[in-house]
Amino acid sequence: MLDGEQTLEREKRMMESGQFEPYDFTEVHRTAKADEQGNSKSQEPLSSAKPEDEPMAEGLEQQQSA
Amino acid sequence: MPDSPFSSPDFLGRDHHAVEYSEELAKALTEGVSSDGNDSAGIDPEPLKDFSADASESVLHFENWASDQRNEHGRLFDSTGREVWRGAGENNRISVPNAQPFCTFTHNHPNGTPPSFEDVIAGAVAQQRELRVVTPSGVAYSIRFEDRTYGAIGAMVSRIKFLDSASWAVAEEWIRSTGRTIDEKERMCRRFHAIFLQLSREGFMSYSRSNAGRRTNAGT
What are the distances in angstroms from CA B173 to CA A27, B162, B190, B197? Predict the structure, then answer.
């Protein structure tokens, strides 16, 4: 999912023009529908984590391996 | 013709009661955004509700770490607080797998923006229990969805469309009347805060925004 960058760009355009610009929900609906239907290409198993740069909270490893 | 501007369908809340949007939006948009602490305007969203202390600590531990990262990182926790997925994305996006309903999804926004409309709608469609966003300055957003039925999500999208426009108009008036100069990020943060608070008042979600800086449960 996108963070607010597109919205930030839209905000800047609206400030410059002084005109409201409706948010384009088309992409949001498309993504949500794809996710709902299980078409997401982003499914990643838990093993895709990068333990070298994403530290585990204490005790979590034990919980997962239990 | 409606009896008053507030009796038109656009101004009716979820329970078909009139809502003074201009006043409420202006108040939310102009107050409390830069102050420290929870400014959820008295709405208690109970973030991480039902999580054990250890599970809450796991979430906060990750969020503390993620808030400093240049790319987005996310984790999904099931309803008991057990981590079921973790992943990384780009600096402005992350893909989230399908998961069982009622998960808590947390991720960071490296550019400091609040939850996007896409975050909110995708989270509701995915039947998430709670959507969380943390920023580099330590602001943490929490949105809990109250009703994840298609009808409720559709109604919420309609409200977002209206409140997006209404808050923009309120922001324009506020800036014009005060002569303040704010950049697009501050304006977006204020508008979205006002929008999410209003959606909370209408019963679509529970929302909080805390500005407690980097934190953990430990020692608190």
Answer: 30, 17, 14, 19
Q: Is residue B55 part of a domain?
A: yes
Query: Which tens digit of pLDDT belongs to each residue from B19-69?
Result: 556 677 777 777 755 433 334 444 445 667 778 888 888 898 899 999 999
Structural domain total, chain A = 1
**What would the DSSP string read from start to end of B163-194?**
HHHHHHHHHHHHHHHH-----HHHHHHHHHHH
Question: How many domains in chain B?
Answer: 1
The ipTM assigned to this model is 0.75
* Nearest-CA distance B64 → chain A (Å): 11
Residue B130 domain flag = yes
The CA distance from A57 to the nearest CA of chain B, in Å, is 5
Provide the total of helices (H) and of strands (E) in chain A, helices listed first. Answer: 3, 0
What's the domain range around A19? 5-65
Is there a contact between B86 and A54 if contact means CB atoms under 8 Å apart? Answer: yes
Q: Is residue B61 part of a domain?
A: yes
Range of the domain at B50: 5-37+45-210
Question: CB-based contact (8 Å) between B15 and chain A?
Answer: no
Residue B184 lies in a domain: yes
